[in-house]
């Protein structure tokens, strides 16, 4: 049984067909890529999985449980988390608090505990702060812990976003263009990082990317979308030589 | 000099009450980008519920004498509970279903305000009720300035409530979620936060502060009537905007600024010009800083 099972996923925005008959069986521990030209419907697929949109048609099952109709916070609680194409950090709070907020559903202490600073709250608070620092260390961000998120350089902000996503303890991580805006050196480091967290946290990863170099190197299986439809899927080698993919990316030949 | 000090105390007293109410506008705006125009009337309901709670407590106590301080605290807590229940029902019935329709929900808020005014009118009648103070009044003279127990209690209780609020917002996970929602509402649920819970909590806190404001206001100006929330509500709303709406400290500062401006205007000019002058001053502040004193410039979407 696949960890994430998507069947016949279709979504319309009014009359616009954003995603049509998208299928996916993602096994535990896999890392697969989703590519396609701008406006192909890739981010919409992520928004459907995470419950931001409700699909017009089709089913999404995670770990054998239906996700369609659940609220985003319930889906996060089941173990799916994501990052965003454009950075969506909480700029008005510190980097540490950005990570700590993602522990929200794991916090057991309530408001009364907070008022009376019960031992339970204090120990939980300490444990979570330690955990947050550990995550920041993995991403080499611990020196920014007290800094406001908005004051960090772009590449660091992207890493904070991944650290924050990991704090929700996901089994499946959805990365939306993690390498966007990075230079080749940064992309290399990002690839190592993705591989490392995948092993360390036992993650399954589904990523959208424009940087072919990243997708081709780290994904063993790739799906290609264009105008909402899946036009190809296979290994990087198969994708590289697929005429429909080339056509979608390079434009149609004029006869 | 004594006169100025005296007026300063009056300004702090009035400003504290405006600040308490302004916080409610600001917090709800922070999480929902929505102005709860019924909030002034929630304040009015808070004043009436405090009145009835005090009557109820006194009647239950019967012949046993209980300290007025206890009646004061008891009525405040009961009024908070009552207004919170009313506000949460309003949120559930009138705001939540319309949350995505930003203009309609503002209209419903105005409608809920009118509804509360007239429900009160129907229940208590069109009379102005004099509020029997729950504070034993003593006037202290400090270097020629007189300050009453009522003024001290109003200032102390307001500041205490604001400190509790600061604590919730800064030190609890719910507070952290509130701050995050005010920054990016779509991303917060993906962190596993149930946004509806946070919105409910925000409305509950806002209405508790308004209820306390109602009780305190009724001690400063001991006449309560169903329309008392309209003008006070507008003024608190303006305080919130002047301080920078959505920013908690902004609402506090805005409340005190309005308190000072109003008392100063009343002290310098004929009292019938008080509202005119204070609103003009606030307009000037807004023209100079359209997002309010602590308000951030609009975020650019990249």
Give a description of the structure.
The complex is a heterodimer of chains A (255) and B (302). Chain A has 255 residues and is of the alpha/beta class. Helix content of chain A is 39%, strand content 23%. Chain A is built from ten helices and ten strands. In chain A, the strands form two sheets. In chain A, strands 6-7-8-3-9-10 form a six-stranded mixed sheet, with helices on both faces. In chain A, strands 2-1-4-5 form a four-stranded antiparallel sheet, covered by helices on one side. The longest helix of chain A is centred in the middle third of the chain and has 20 residues, at 119-138. Chain B has one domain (2-288): ABC transporter involved in vitamin B12 uptake, BtuC (Orthogonal Bundle). The longest helix of chain B is centred in the first third of the chain and has 31 residues, at 2-32. The mean pLDDT of chain B is 92. At the A-B interface, helix 2, helix 3 and helix 4 of A face helix 5 and helix 6 of B.
Largest interface: A-B, 32 and 24 residues
CATH architecture of the largest domain in chain A: 3-Layer(aba) Sandwich
Question: Helical content of chain A, roughly?
Answer: 25-40%
Given as residue ranges, the uncertain stretches of chain B (5+ residues, pLDDT < 50) are none
Using the coordinates shown, work out and report the CATH topology of chain B: ABC transporter involved in vitamin B12 uptake, BtuC
Short structural summary:
The complex is a heterodimer of chains A (255) and B (302). With 255 residues, chain A is α/β, with parallel strands linked by helices. In chain A, 39% of the residues lie in helices and 23% in strands.
Give the SSE layout.
The complex is a heterodimer of chains A (about 260) and B (about 300).
Chain A: E1 4-13, E2 16-26, E3 31-35, H1 42-49, E4 57-62, E5 65-66, H2 72-78, E6 80-82, H3 95-101, H4 111-116, H5 119-138, H6 154-167, E7 172-176, H7 184-200, E8 204-208, H8 212-218, E9 221-226, E10 229-234, H9 236-241, H10 243-250
Parallel strand pairs in A: 3-8, 3-9, 6-7, 7-8
Antiparallel strand pairs in A: 1-2, 1-4, 4-5, 9-10
Helix pairs in contact in A: 3-6, 5-6
Chain B: H1 2-32, H2 39-61, H3 68-95, H4 102-124, E1 129-130, E2 139-142, E3 145-148, H5 149-171, H6 173-183, H7 195-220, E4 223-224, H8 228-243, H9 248-268, H10 274-288
Antiparallel strand pairs in B: 1-4, 2-3
Helix pairs in contact in B: 1-5, 1-6, 1-7, 1-8, 1-9, 2-3, 2-4, 2-7, 2-8, 3-7, 5-6, 5-7, 6-7, 8-9, 9-10
